[in-house]
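Reopening this one. Same input as before:
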Amino acid sequence: MIHLLLRLVINAIALGVAAALVPGIQFVGEGQVSILSLLLVALIFGLVNAIIKPVLALLTCPFYILTLGLFTFVVNALMLMLTSWLAGPRFQVAGFWSALLGSIIISLVGMMFNVLAGEARQKRRPPE
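Same output, byte for byte:
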């Protein structure tokens, strides 16, 4: 349970960073972006990546092989655009290129926080 909440928070932070850095990605609302909006979009993003991305990856396996894995970036961008569509007016991605750049940023920020969270878990674990 704690792992799922940690993933949700990491996704929320990564989405917030992408929205801050990429002009075509934005959270729409009154004033500042609320933490609740970030968490809700992160939940939608996590569900899209958990349910739809594996099916899409299986269907597009030849493209992964043909491009030596670079097609992953295209699939990640499509998942971000789908998240934007599902989230409705609170989260918007302007187009494919914004989604592509945003998905790269989300991947990098997520990877960084996952490494930090993994190191923190290993420090708490008693030696065997």
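So the earlier flakiness isn't reproducible anymore. For the record, Residues 43 and 60 are 25 Å apart (CA to CA).
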